[in-house]
Amino acid sequence: MSSDSQALAPASSRLVERIALRLTLPAVLLAVPILVFLAIFFFYPAINLLFFSLLTQDAKGVVGPPHTLAHYTRFFEVDLYLRVFWNTLRISLVTSAFAIVLGYPVAIVMSRSGPIVSRTIALIVIAPLIVSVVVRSYGWQLILVNSPNGLLNWALMSIGIISEPLAILYSETAVVIGSLHVFFPMMVLPLASALGKIDPNLEDCARTLGAPWWKVFLRVTLPLSVPGLVAGFTLVFSLTAGSFVTPVILGGTTATMLGNLIEQQIFVVYDWPFGAAIAMVLVLVVFAINTLSMRLLEGRRFRSVS
Amino acid sequence: MNRRLSGPGAWILYFITALLMVFILAPLAVVVAMSVSDSYFVSFPPQGFTLKWYGKILQDRDFLAALQLSGLLAFSTTMGSLLLGIPAAIALTRGRFPGQDLLKGLVLSPLIFPALVTGLALMQLLSAMGSGDARINLLIGHIVVTSPYVIRAVVTSLLLVDYNLEDAARTLGANRLKTFWRITLPQIAPGVAAGALFAFMVSFDNYPVTMWLANSEYSPVPLVLMRQLVNVFDPSVPAMSTVIIILAVVGVLILERLVGLRRAAAM
User: Fold this and answer.
1) Nearest CA to CA, how far is A305 from chain B (Å)?
2) Which of A27, A122, A134 sits opposite B207 (nearest CB)?
3) Is residue B20 part of a domain?
4) Is B115 on the interface with A (CB under 8 A)?
5) B159 in the same domain as B38
6) Pairwise CB contact (< 8 Å): A138 & B31
7) Is-contact B205 A132, C-beta < 8 A?
8) Rounded to a whole number, what is the distance in Å from the CA of A151 to chain B's nearest CA?
């Protein structure tokens, strides 16, 4: 008996190996088409753009050596560009902060209500995601118009709260409102899914032990929902930082963001290397936020283990 | 599964949520209301009721051409994304090989990368290669940004498929292709459909990649709308926007029917 199994062991392990090989080889091959496609049309162009940002453009518009970091130093030295850079960071940060504060109530109600309420909220939160950003920003333009013809001013003036129309459109506030509207679902959905995973008994325990509702939230719900919070924050921040349409429609010439600056450099000024450099700055901002949030989540995991 | 909300905090939460629902729907409602306004300028409050702006945009050649182009582009993009995405999803769930996580990160990376830069980089490559047809360029760019959605949706549903059924089919003598076609595909059909619908809608609405690759001859809907928005001030712009909203609502209803909205959003 024992000699039998000994004789069988190498044969069966060889069989397993052979099966594994047969299952594995074609499986990898299935990913080849998309890898080739992305390599040619996504990875290569992205790296190419990085090199482009280090080249010089001569008076005739020909781009070539010498290699230089001049575009980057120019970006961080010229006041105008620096202001756009800070605008972008500020708008993205404020938008994601509001998304967090307003996302929690919605996500809590969504994950702790009956099927009808929960489904209705999901429908209202998700549906606008599919409507073009152009249409949604345009809707906000109609609401915020700086004359008595806008919905907001008309309503406030009819009630008599204000006598002069407010000037919200073409400001950072308008861009934040529009971005919040566009990317709000990106905060609510991960939050709701994180909240749904929390054991309700934990909150009940805290409540039974006499903690008021705000303390239950701060000490139990909030810490346990951090993964959803970080995921939502990263998404909202990255997407807002890379927006183009919303600042054009709602920000006008005052609340310009990096995306608008890139478009201007390429389509209006035709300064390709400088446009590429600004694009790389944008990529860097987005990567930094993603890395930071990943570090944050990993740190949490290690702490909970120890 | 979770306990219902109760206590004094609950009413505050419900109130804030209700306000936010109004916040979400308001800009869309305003657009729809303005589209039937019987006035020559878009200004609040809307006056009377007319459908003449819809009549106007139905004769607008640019808008109709854009609708046709966007529909065709979104359809071809969806096909391309499925063709590249489904095999990739199978590789990610069925095979086991070194670097699988890396592969997953690579194929999903267009999701995190700023789309604006994706489009710019691609335009630079394509113009250097001398590829002149904007429609082909748009198709390539849209497949880059939509394929991760297909992969994610198909991977999610492949993970739910019962391996035993596939094994049983193989044991009974079906070859790999037949097993996939008869056993796996029917089970992942909702995921494939959701992925396809995502790809279609993302392509139809895409602006940040489209803005670099389109030209004056071939401009998809979002670009045409943006141009109208800057140049035209009558309610035909809200009417165009309403058409887009209606198309989106139809898409959402199909998605809800196919997989349920919460599940689809989690993909």
Assistant:
1) 23
2) A134
3) no
4) yes
5) no
6) yes
7) yes
8) 6
Pick the closest to residue B254 from B184, B198, B185, B186 (CA basis): B198
Provide the residue count of chain A. Answer: 306
Token pair 């005739």 is at which residue? Answer: A60
| CATH number of B125's domain | 1.10.3720.10
Helix axis angle for A133-144 and B221-231, nearest 10°, is: 20
Mean pLDDT of chain B: 85
Distance in angstroms (rounded) separating the CA atoms of residues B169 and A242: 48
Residue A56: band (very low, low, confident or very high) from pLDDT cuts 50, 70, 90: confident
- Answer whether B16 sits within 8 Å of A286, measured CB to CB: no
Q: Which residues of B218-256 are buried (b: 16+ CB within 10 A; e: fewer)?
A: bbbbbbbbbebbeeeebbbbbbbbbbbbebbeebbeebb
Residue B205 and residue B86 share a domain:
yes
Structure tokens at A188: 């609510």
- Crossing angle of helices A172-196 and A133-144, in 10° steps, is 130
Residue B256 forms part of a structural domain: no
Domain count, chain B: 2
Q: What is the DSSP letter of A56?
A: E
> Which band of pLDDT confidence, cut at 50, 70 and 90, is reported for residue A303?
low
Q: Do B87 and A30 touch (CB under 8 A)?
A: yes
What are the pLDDT digits (tens) for B26-85?
Answer: 999 988 888 887 777 666 677 777 777 788 888 888 888 999 999 999 999 999 999 999
| Residue A239 confidence (pLDDT) | 92
Best residue in B21, B35, B42, B44 for a mutation probing chain A (most A CBs within 10 Å): B44
Q: How far is A154 from chain B (nearest CA, A)?
A: 7
What the block records as the tokens of A68 is 């230089």
Regarding whether B215 and B96 lie in a shared domain, the answer is yes
Residue B3: the pLDDT is 57
DSSP B42-108: --SSP-S---HHHHHHHT-HHHHHHHHHHHHHHHHHHHHHHHHHHHHHHHHHH---TTHHHHHHHHH
Taking the Cβ of residue A278 and every Cβ of chain B, the question of whether any pair is shorter than 8 Å is answered with no
Domain-located, residue B50: yes
pLDDT tens for each residue of A3-55: 444 444 455 555 555 555 455 557 788 889 999 999 999 999 999 999 888 88
Residue with more model confidence, A27 or A98: A98
Of the candidates A130, A138, A276, the beta carbon closest to that of B229 is on A138
**Residue at a domain's end among B59, B81, B100:** B59
Instruction: Please report whether residue B52 resides in a domain.
Output: yes
Q: Does A35 touch chain B (CB under 8 A)?
A: yes
From chain A, the residues in CB contact with B141 under 8 A are 41
Contact A31 B88 (CB under 8 A): yes
- Containing structural domain, residue B206: 69-236
Kindly list the structural domains of chain A, giving each domain's residue range(s) and its CATH number in brackets, ordered by start: 70-305 (1.10.3720.10)
In chain A, what is the straight-line distance between the N-terminal and C-terminal CA atoms, in Å?
46
| For range B212-231, the mean pLDDT | 89
Tell if the CB–CB gap between B114 and A283 is shorter than 8 Å: yes
